[in-house]
């Protein structure tokens, strides 16, 4: 029974390998694997991946991009196996669900000879990927703090709403605190608002009841910032030069920055479009005469009314 | 042997234990308020108390419905997802109605109507699957929990559904405005609580719920239409979710996959803190309301202090919930500690 099945599978793989190699001569197959979008940021990533697929396949008729999304780490591991055995990919662009459980599956893809691009979340073992593309969490905290310093003076008070307790949140928070230190700006308190509008609203309501004098808010994230703004408006404390700094680059936030909103005057980029950057660079690895392998860390750009239009994608869900 | 001791504990200290059962949650809430005041006098400022009451309204209203379900021996795990799905559909319907109905009151009323119909429908589905389908309530509502949650993700395309800006302007006062010093959500909460109390304590339906919860077989032989009453409890639950959603949507005007996460557990916790028995047969609406207030107050107090590490918020919440229930069950201390 088992023998039969194995033989069958081998025969099938063999046949596919033949078919694959026949096509592979003129087609570059690139698998793109990422988690199923269940929140706005990931939905934005999905959208940008689809846009990049259309654009690149039009530009290079011999490039075939295969997008696969998976609802959990196990499914993503299986998806990677399928990309190798069924599609015979020449390169893989992967945003791992979790670093630990996906390191081995990605290593197996590597052993098949494919080029590996890892996006956003690193693998737990160094040296597997040819190219690493990621946003910059500490930089996001630092840029936000630098902006705060340009707007505030010695003795001004801020409150911080943090995300979900994770490494990402710690990196952002620690870098922010390191940059703000010595500026004379007081951080009254910081609480977790879980990158969530409702929590942002409630935590900010409580900060407003607790502290009569707040000059600015670092919300770290655009969703939290929306809740913060609702709480400020409810309490009537949205005037007097009060401002909120979020992060990520949600289209609604960028639109209001373009329109000259004073309550959220800037945003700090942590773009879901980084998957498109990774896809571009991976195609370039096959098409460009310049070297591509290495680490590509995106800047945490400060979005202001002047440059906002470059980061505004009205069609994207995020 | 065991039966004898149960009878003893049940009979002799009854008068004392009932008093404690009623007072337990109230004492816990009072203690919490004193702690809150000592930590920061701003805790009892009018603004903070209004925020607290308004915030409790969501979980409180849902928990009133959950009291019926649990009293009748059921459980509903789908309420958080149901709220998210109803909020999502409401927003889609209102956004699409703007062109024909304009951005005024009719659109908002249409949205509310849709919410109520959906709530009743979703409750009926849970009830019918439990009674006619003969599937355990835990499994049915675990299933519908996943279904409603993924539906809202699907509707929102993984992102966030946002209400049309002009409609928000019309709808906004429902959350933010007040009548006689109390915000509207608090009035809705009060109305739902009073109706719930009357229904549970002053009608035949309420007595049927209790009877079914304590012994379903006996209730059936007593000519109670068990299936109908049980289905009705889920419909009441669905209706309560609709009311909660109707006052939730104007707050931020959006719904996403992260809307209403864990509301089901908070509602169940509120019901149990309030003195309702998880296995059914005994329900208290008044206690449920205190339970909802206690849960909201814990979160509020934790935001008012930086003495406790942020990472330990869950620990504090857990401890206070357990202590609150312990206070209310403490009749075992007063009962005769005769072990047979």
Describe this structure in words.
- The complex is a heterodimer of chains A (318) and B (340).
- Chain A has 318 residues and is an alpha/beta fold.
- Chain A has 2 domains: 2-134 and 272-287, 3-Layer(aba) Sandwich (Rossmann fold); 137-268, Rossmann fold (3-Layer(aba) Sandwich), CATH 3.40.50.
- Helices cover 47% and strands 18% of the residues of chain A.
- In chain A, the strands form 3 sheets. A 6-stranded parallel beta sheet of chain A has the order 2-1-3-4-5-11, sandwiched between helices. A 4-stranded parallel beta sheet of chain A has the order 7-6-8-9, with helices on both faces. Chain A has a two-stranded antiparallel ribbon with strand order 10-12.
- In chain A, helix 5 (137-151) runs parallel beside helix 6.
- Chain A is elongated and about 65 Å long.
- With 340 residues, chain B is mainly α.
- Chain B has a domain at 57-283.
- In chain B, 75% of the residues lie in helices and 3% in strands.
- Chain B is built from 16 helices and 4 strands.
- Chain B has helices spanning 2-11, 14-39, 46-71, 79-101, 105-131, 137-155, 165-171, 173-176, 184-202, 204-214, 216-221, 226-252, 263-273, 285-303, 313-328, 331-334; strands at 160-162, 178-179, 182-183, 254-256.
- In chain B, the strands form 2 sheets. A two-stranded antiparallel ribbon of chain B has the order 1-4. Chain B has a two-stranded antiparallel ribbon with strand order 2-3.
- In chain B, strand 2 and strand 3 (182-183) form a beta hairpin.
- In chain B, helix 2 (14-39) packs antiparallel against helix 15.
- The N and C termini of chain B lie close together (6 Å).
- The model of chain B is unreliable at 1-14 and 334-340 (pLDDT under 50).
- The A-B interface holds A 36-40, 42-44, 46, 162, 165, 189-192, 196-198, 201-203, 205-210, 223, 226-227, 230, 234-235, 252, 317-318 and B 40, 42-43, 45, 47-48, 51, 55, 153, 156-160, 162, 176, 251-252, 254, 256-259, 299-300, 303-304, 306, 310-311, 313.
């Amino acid at each position: 029974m088992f023998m039969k099945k194995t033989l069958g599978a081998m025969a099938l793989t063999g046949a596919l390998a033949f078919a694959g190699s026949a096509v592979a001569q003129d087609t570059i197959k690139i698998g793109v694997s990422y988690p199923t979008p269940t929140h706005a940021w990931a939905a934005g990533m999905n959208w940008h991946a689809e846009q990049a697929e259309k654009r690149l396949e039009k530009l290079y008729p011999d490039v075939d991009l295969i997008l696969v999304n998976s609802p959990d780490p196990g499914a993503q591991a299986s998806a990677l196996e399928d990309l190798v055995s069924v599609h015979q990919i020449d390169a893989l662009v992967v945003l791992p669900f979790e670093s630990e459980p996906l390191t081995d599956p990605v290593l197996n893809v590597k052993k098949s000879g494919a080029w590996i691009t890892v996006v956003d979340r690193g693998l737990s073992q160094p040296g597997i990927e040819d190219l690493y593309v990621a946003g910059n969490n500490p930089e996001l905290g630092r840029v936000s703090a630098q902006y705060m310093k340009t707007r505030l003076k010695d003795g001004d008070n801020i409150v911080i709403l943090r995300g979900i307790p994770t490494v990402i949140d710690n990196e952002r928070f620690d870098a922010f605190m390191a940059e703000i230190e010595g500026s004379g700006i007081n951080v009254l308190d910081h609480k977790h608002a879980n990158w969530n509008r409702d929590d942002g609203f409630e935590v900010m309501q409580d900060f407003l009841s607790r502290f009569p004098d707040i000059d600015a808010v670092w919300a770290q994230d655009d969703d939290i910032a929306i809740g913060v703004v609702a709480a400020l408006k409810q309490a009537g404390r949205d005037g007097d030069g009060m401002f909120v700094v979020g992060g990520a680059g949600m289209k609604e936030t960028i639109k209001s920055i373009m329109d000259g909103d004073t309550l959220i005057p800037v945003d700090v980029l942590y773009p879901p479009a980084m998957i498109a950057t990774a896809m571009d660079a991976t195609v370039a690895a096959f098409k460009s005469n310049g070297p591509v392998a290495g680490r590509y860390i995106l800047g945490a750009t400060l979005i202001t009314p002047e440059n906002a239009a470059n980061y505004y994608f009205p069609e994207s869900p995020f | 042997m065991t039966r004898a001791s149960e009878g003893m504990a049940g009979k002799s200290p009854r008068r004392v234990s009932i008093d404690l059962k009623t007072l337990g949650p109230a004492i816990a809430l009072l203690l919490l308020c004193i702690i809150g005041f000592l930590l920061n006098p701003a805790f009892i400022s009018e603004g903070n108390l209004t925020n607290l009451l308004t915030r409790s309204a969501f979980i409180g209203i849902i928990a009133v419905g959950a009291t019926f379900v649990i009293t009748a021996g059921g459980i509903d795990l789908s309420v958080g997802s149901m709220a998210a799905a109803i909020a999502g559909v409401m927003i889609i319907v209102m956004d699409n109605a703007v062109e024909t109905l304009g951005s005024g009151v009719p659109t908002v009323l249409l949205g509310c109507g849709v919410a109520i119909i959906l709530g009743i429908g979703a409750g009926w589905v849970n009830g019918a699957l439990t009674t006619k389908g003969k599937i355990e309530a835990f499994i049915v509502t675990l299933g519908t929990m996943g279904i409603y949650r993924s539906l809202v993700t699907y509707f929102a395309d993984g992102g966030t559904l946002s209400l049309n800006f002009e409609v928000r302007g019309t709808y906004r006062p429902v959350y933010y405005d007040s009548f006689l010093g109390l915000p509207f959500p608090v009035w809705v909460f009060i109305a739902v609580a009073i109706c719930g109390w009357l229904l549970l304590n002053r009608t035949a339906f309420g007595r049927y719920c209790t009877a079914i919860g304590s012994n379903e077989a006996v209730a059936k032989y007593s000519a109670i239409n068990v299936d109908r009453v049980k289905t009705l409890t889920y419909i009441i639950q669905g209706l309560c979710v609709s009311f909660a959603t109707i006052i939730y949507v104007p707050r931020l005007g959006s719904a996403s996959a992260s809307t209403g996460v864990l509301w089901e557990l908070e509602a169940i916790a509120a019901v149990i803190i309030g003195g309702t028995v998880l296995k059914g047969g005994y329900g208290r609406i008044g206690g449920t309301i205190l339970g909802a207030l206690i849960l909201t107050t814990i979160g509020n107090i934790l935001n008012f202090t930086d003495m406790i590490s942020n990472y330990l918020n869950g620990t504090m919440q857990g401890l206070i919930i357990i202590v609150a229930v312990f206070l209310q069950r403490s009749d075992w201390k007063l009962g005769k500690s005769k072990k047979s």
